[in-house]
Design goal:
By secondary structure, the protein is of the alpha/beta class. The protein contains ten helices and eight strands. It has an eight-stranded mixed beta sheet, sandwiched between helices. The chain is globular and about 45 Å long.
């Protein structure tokens, strides 16, 4: 998860790549996010909108995008620590072009509407992001998950006869697991990309929720996250095996924490595309 150790790891990675933060900004300035993402083959026309979703704690501002015709499996996206922003919307739109009705949320809606920050450099925004991250907990994750799943199920573009998928980045990874455990009858697939805090020694550790799930899973683990907690992948494998649930758990070589969203400093295009391709396979198998 985003913290000082992650910043240090990423700085070292960028230094090794001979790419400073300033160089990253200069190199990416003026380049649209769409240009950084591979085009969807046989992309469906989509309809997109900003929506407000009622929750027990207020109104969450979200982004909803779906194919312009028909009904499709729903997908709930939990952003990383930097929240709902153009990069997350672009990724959601790309998924919708593959035939899914996608809701990406502002997990910080209790505090402020999106966008939350104007940078994905944790060192620059930590004073804003840290208190927001701390304002959420397993209880808020669960109440929000139920509200967002209910929203998806109420949409004509969502096929209620098919299971829903959920996916998350960084802090969103463990929230997908709480979602899958909170609404097991609806969540058929989950995916965590460089998720933090998936396995802890606390009684509310996400990995302890696996017996309550029915979802098939994908865990795409950053190399430096694995270095810091090498046992986590094995704990996850054991938990899913004991529950009899399929789980693809892999450490992505050369990929640093945060490598999937195209607006991060450590975006790794090749590994991000491979992780995306595995996501599509998971959803095709588990959601139909």
């Amino acid at each position: 998860m985003c913290d000082e150790m992650t910043v240090a790891d990423n700085d070292a990675y960028l230094s090794a790549k001979e790419m400073t933060r300033r160089q990253f900004g200069a190199g990416s300035a003026g380049v649209g996010l769409a240009a950084l993402l591979t085009s969807t083959a046989n992309a469906q026309a989509v309809t997109e909108s900003d929506v407000d979703v009622e929750t027990p704690d207020g109104v969450a501002d979200c982004y909803f995008v779906h194919p312009s015709s028909g009904s499709h499996p729903g997908v709930l996206i939990w952003p990383d620590a930097f929240g709902l922003r153009p990069a997350m919307k672009q990724m959601a739109k790309r998924l919708a072009e593959s035939g899914y009705s996608v809701l990406v949320v502002n997990q910080y809606y209790r505090s402020q509407r999106a966008p939350i920050v104007n940078s994905t450099n944790f060192a620059e925004v930590r004073d804003t992001v840290r208190p927001l991250m701390a304002s959420l907990n397993p209880n808020t994750h669960v109440t929000d998950a139920r509200a967002f799943v209910s929203f998806l199920d109420s949409q004509p573009s969502v096929d209620g006869a098919r299971k829903i998928g959920t996916m998350g980045y960084c802090m969103g990874g463990p929230i997908t697991m709480r979602t899958a455990a909170a609404v097991p009858g609806r969540i058929g697939a989950g995916a965590s990309f460089h998720g933090g805090g998936l396995v802890t020694d606390r009684p509310d550790s996400p990995h302890l929720l696996v017996p309550k799930m029915t979802a098939h899973y994908l865990f795409a683990i950053a190399e430096n996250d694995d270095t810091r907690q090498p046992e986590a992948k094995d704990v996850l494998r054991d938990a899913f095996a004991e529950a009899g649930l399929p789980a693809e758990i892999e450490v992505y070589e050369g990929a640093m924490h945060g490598w999937c969203p195209p607006d991060t400093q450590v975006y790794h295009e090749a590994q991000a595309e491979r992780a995306w391709s595995r996501l599509l396979v998971l959803f095709e198998r588990a959601l139909g």
